[in-house]
């Protein structure tokens, strides 16, 4: 399979979310192609817990020395990293909540950003260990912030992805979704067209 796609949704509205609708459009377009396979995961439905000290500490214990409980905690992160590594394209459907990403998506990043596993520090600085992948962000927002200082979400996502080695990142914005019906419909139409172009280029 040329392109294995990992599609992560994170709207607390589930399938009724606008970012989920963009994800669904992406999935349907990808389904029209024989060479694309999509794995979808709903992070809001799964609700990973916040990363805590016990889980963080378990990563630092050598595999042979982990307690049964630590093995379970490490497995949570290992499974998500293995899944990421097994795909070529990461698609993140991301609502803007209070100028940031949903905490459920942050909890996923907190599991896949692991020193020594997905990135390491060298004398030249950090080096990402998730190689040869690209990412697509489908951003749904009530307001309009792309390209302004208030868009704290896109730089944050790009920084996290870049840290683990994914620097080829495309962003599709659906903005102004709370700024009237006309604005919303136009933004969603434009976003769907951008997705069509992106899928065609995979
Ligand atoms: C809790 C909450 C916080 C939000 N905060 C923002 C915000 O900071 N900026 C913004 O432009 N829109 C904000 N919105 C509007 C959402 O970005 C918008 O409804 C978008 O469609 C959310 O994606 P979703 O429909 O996939 O959940 C917020 C919505 C909710 C429910």
Task: Explain how this protein is built.
This protein is α/β, with parallel strands linked by helices. It has one domain (3-200): Rossmann fold (3-Layer(aba) Sandwich). 42% of the residues lie in helices and 21% in strands. The protein is built from seven helices and seven strands. The chain has helices at residues 18-31, 43-46, 53-59, 68-85, 103-112, 153-163, 181-200, and strands at residues 3-9, 36-42, 89-95, 119-122, 125-128, 134-140, 168-174. The strands form two sheets. A five-stranded parallel β-sheet has the order 2-1-3-6-7, with helices on both faces. Strands 4-5 form a two-stranded antiparallel ribbon. Strand 1 (3-9), helix 1 (18-31) and strand 2 (36-42) form a beta-alpha-beta unit. Helix 1 packs parallel to helix 7 and helix 3 packs across helix 4 (68-85). The two termini are 12 Å apart. The model has no long low-confidence stretch (mean pLDDT 97). The structure holds flavin mononucleotide (FMN).
State the main characteristics.
single chain; 202 residues; alpha/beta; Rossmann fold; five-stranded parallel sheet; two-stranded antiparallel ribbon; binds flavin mononucleotide
């Amino acid at each position: 399979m040329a392109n294995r796609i990992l599609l992560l949704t994170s709207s607390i509205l589930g399938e009724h979310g606008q970012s989920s609708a963009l994800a669904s459009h992406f999935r349907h377009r990808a389904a029209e192609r024989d060479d694309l396979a999509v794995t979808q995961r709903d992070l809001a439905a799964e609700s990973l817990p916040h990363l805590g000290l016990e889980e963080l500490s378990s990563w630092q214990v050598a595999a042979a020395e982990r307690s049964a409980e630590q093995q379970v905690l490490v497995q949570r992160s290992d499974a998500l990293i293995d899944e990421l590594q097994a795909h070529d394209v990461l698609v993140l459907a991301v609502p803007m909540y209070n100028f940031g990403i949903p905490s459920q998506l942050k909890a996923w990043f907190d599991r896949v950003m692991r020193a020594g596993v997905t990135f390491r520090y060298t004398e030249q600085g950090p080096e990402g260990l998730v190689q040869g992948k690209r990412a697509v962000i489908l951003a749904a927002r009530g307001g309009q912030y792309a390209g302004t200082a208030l868009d704290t979400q896109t730089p944050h996502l790009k920084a996290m992805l870049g840290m683990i080695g994914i620097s080829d990142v495309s962003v599709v914005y659906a903005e102004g979704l709370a700024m009237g019906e006309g604005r919303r419909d136009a933004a969603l139409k434009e976003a769907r067209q951008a997705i069509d172009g992106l899928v065609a280029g995979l």
